[in-house]
Amino acid sequence: MEGLLLVVSGPSATGKGTVCRQLVNETDVELSVSATTREPRPGEVDGVDYFFMTEEEFVKTIEEDGFIEHVENFGRRYGTPLSYVKSKISSGRDIILEIDVQGAAIIKEKFPECILIFLLPPSIEELGARIRRRGTETKEKIAQRLSKAQQEIECIVNYDYYIVNNEVEQAVEDMKSIIKAEHHKLCKNVSDQIINSFKEEKTDALS
Amino acid sequence: MEGLLLVVSGPSATGKGTVCRQLVNETDVELSVSATTREPRPGEVDGVDYFFMTEEEFVKTIEEDGFIEHVENFGRRYGTPLSYVKSKISSGRDIILEIDVQGAAIIKEKFPECILIFLLPPSIEELGARIRRRGTETKEKIAQRLSKAQQEIECIVNYDYYIVNNEVEQAVEDMKSIIKAEHHKLCKNVSDQIINSFKEEKTDALS
Prior knowledge:
2 copies of one chain form a homodimer.
Chain A: E1 5-9, H1 16-26, E2 30-31, E3 34-36, E4 50-52, H2 55-63, E5 67-73, E6 76-81, H3 82-90, E7 95-98, H4 101-110, E8 115-120, H5 124-134, H6 139-153, E9 161-164, H7 168-183, H8 188-199, H9 203-206
Parallel strand pairs in A: 1-7, 1-8, 2-7, 3-4, 8-9
Antiparallel strand pairs in A: 3-6, 5-6
């Protein structure tokens, strides 16, 4: 049975990272490993934290259509390697990645069988409170972030599932149910496999 | 939020009844109540066990297109009342009904938003063993039932989910996950509701 590619988006400060880390700790789901051209930090391991690439390797991989999606941030490149995702999934592992709404749309296009999950804050008010509690942003900056959150939430129409992150434990449980249900979903392939496995049994011999 | 109409099929002796009853005992899901023209047995309550109807009432309901599906068995009629299902669902209750593959196909046509779940035995061999353990059937009859089971399993292509009933507890847990996931599913309506509820909040006042 194939694994799942789970893609999680949601406004910043909604708690995507915490929810994904806890899910990975409590289940067999693995965090997807991205490729990057930035330097490894002390303790970071190639193939575990990131696939570290030179600029040349990264560009070559783009040209070979080897990324599901890729972006550039402040001169550093990040991408999701297609071959890595495919090999994980075909070996039956579920992998999860956190990405913004634009990235998620690109992944869905290239990988229609992925599961898009949108993590929502309980409310904009609560999101504002969470950002204020961090104490790192001006009043103006917070207003900007909240208005951006509202815009991002409009992209929810493209997603398969939503989860409200009221409490991390509950959000992780919701995620687990979605994953379990998806593993019980029928499609043409799975149906054919089931029908064939039951057909192989001879009823005469079994009565 | 609307409730779900869950429809469970599977070969006879797979354990549909046991799984559905346990689900109903452990959750808020309700067993759907059918209409019938047969006489109430001692202790049976109208509107709880069945909606008891006269032949005339039943035929009138058919003519008014008031059943999602209906059948006749040995001169007795059984049907799933449309208005009952609609009122349960719109009040937010999940209801479940057990039905054969033909009945399920009719329900899906009349009620496309229903969730079709196929309950499978672990194998035809195990299904045969379960029927033999009951000790009520001839060798020939068992072979017929197993061959019918294989035919029914071919209808799995029309279903949304499958569950293997290896152990009742596990099958009920799988059912719960499917229900929970379905309540987190996004469609146009749900997306619009979410977008609107977040839009109503003014970001300026909250920063």
